[in-house]
Every structure is written in C-alpha cells, then in structure tokens.
C-alpha cells in the first residue's frame, strides 16, 4: 500500500482520490447498512450509485461502487453524516493504516511531540490515560449531530475534560502510549457510537 502524506496540503488527495470511483467487496455477514456505516456513507447513497442491487440479495464477493466526493481542501465545509461541519487535518504525518473492517480509524505516523489539532470545534468528553482499552493518553471530543472523535496514543494531553476547543486547536502531542508499536495518532470518528470512515470529514 502506498503511504500518503497527511498534512496541510489537499486532505482528500493525501488519503485517497475521492474524485475517482472506489469500490468495496461484500463479505459474509455484510448488509447495506453495515457497508454504509463502515465506509462513511448512507444506504441511500449506495443504492443511488449501484442501480439494480437489492438489499436482500447481496452476494459474498460482489463488488459495490462507493459514492465519490470531489477533492477538497482543509477547512472546507462539507456534509458528513448529515451534519454541516468544517474539518481540518488533525496531524501532519504518514497514513500507515487506513479505515477498514478490522481497523475502525486511521493510523497517522509522526514524530513524538508533533502537535495534534482538533479536527473540529467541540467539547472535551474525556482526556485521560485509557489503560483498559490500550489507547494510552487519549482525548475524546464530542460534536454536533452525534459525532465523536477519538485521538489516541498521545504522549501528552493538553486539554481537560469539560473544556471547549476550537477547530485547529492543539489538544495533544503525538506519542506511543498504550498498545502501540511506534509514535502515531490513532484517529477515529464515530456517528452515534458507530465507527465511520474519517475520509467523509475532509
């Protein structure tokens, strides 16, 4: 897998080419709802770009086209999970693990101490050392519309529970705490508690 830079340049181009068609392969147990949630889209959008498919007739191995989005720049206002948001990259680093069925977020490698910024303005739900789940120093931000964003494996948290933060505010620094194999940010986005593809924010 090619490793992309994830930084202050074009976010969409740094991750994947959102202007090009992408697809997903149906696996055992998949439904349109689970595929939509896993890939940061909706059932309606999947049906729109896959005319003729039936929700109750998915086949293992079947390939479905994913809805595409035009490339965008950091800070542009986009529609994600039916909420108008303005998001910026959380860190300048290398994408080492993408969002997939086994990994519900993005791993972004960067040197220890690299600033981690709030992708969106929000409320600090928690800023703790999470040993039980192996996250290490972690900041969890709550946002409008049921969105929650988790920033994990930090070397230090720079905000406290209950604090309001602004888009782009430095909230932590990259580290390798918890169950981690090297300095990186584990960046996860949840909609109503369900992991969704962070690509949809940018």
TrEMBL record:
Keyword Nucleus: no
TM regions (residue ranges): none
PROSITE patterns in the cross-refs: LYSM
SMART domains per record: LysM (SM00257)
Keywords on record: Signal
Domain LysM span(s) in chain numbering: 22-66
InterPro entries per the UniProt record, alphabetical: Cell_wall_metabolism_enzyme, Dup_hybrid_motif, LysM, LysM_dom_sf, M23ase_b-sheet_dom
GO molecular function terms listed in the Swiss-Prot or TrEMBL record: metalloendopeptidase activity
Signal peptide limits: 1-28
Keyword DNA repair: no
Protein name, per record: LysM domain-containing protein
Annotated organism of origin: Deinococcus reticulitermitis
Species classification: Bacteria, Thermotogati, Deinococcota, Deinococci, Deinococcales
């Amino acid at each position: 897998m090619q490793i992309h830079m994830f930084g202050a340049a074009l976010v969409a181009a740094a991750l994947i080419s959102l202007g090009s068609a992408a697809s997903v392969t149906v696996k055992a147990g998949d439904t349109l709802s689970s595929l939509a949630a896993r890939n940061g889209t909706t059932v309606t959008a999947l049906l729109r770009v896959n005319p003729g498919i039936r929700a109750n007739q998915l086949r293992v191995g079947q390939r479905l086209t994913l809805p595409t989005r035009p490339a965008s720049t950091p800070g542009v206002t986009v529609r994600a999970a039916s909420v108008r948001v303005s998001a910026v990259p959380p860190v300048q680093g290398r994408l080492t693990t993408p969002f997939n069925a086994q990994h519900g977020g993005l791993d972004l490698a960067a040197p220890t101490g690299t600033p981690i910024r709030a992708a969106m303005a929000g409320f600090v739900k928690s800023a703790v050392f999470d040993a039980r789940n192996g996250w290490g120093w972690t900041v969890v931000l709550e946002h409008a519309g049921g969105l929650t964003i988790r920033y994990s494996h930090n070397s230090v948290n720079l905000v406290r529970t209950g604090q309001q933060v602004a888009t782009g505010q430095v909230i932590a620094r990259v580290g390798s705490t918890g169950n981690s194999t090297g300095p990186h940010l584990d960046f996860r986005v949840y909609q109503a508690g369900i992991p969704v593809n962070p690509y949809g924010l940018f």
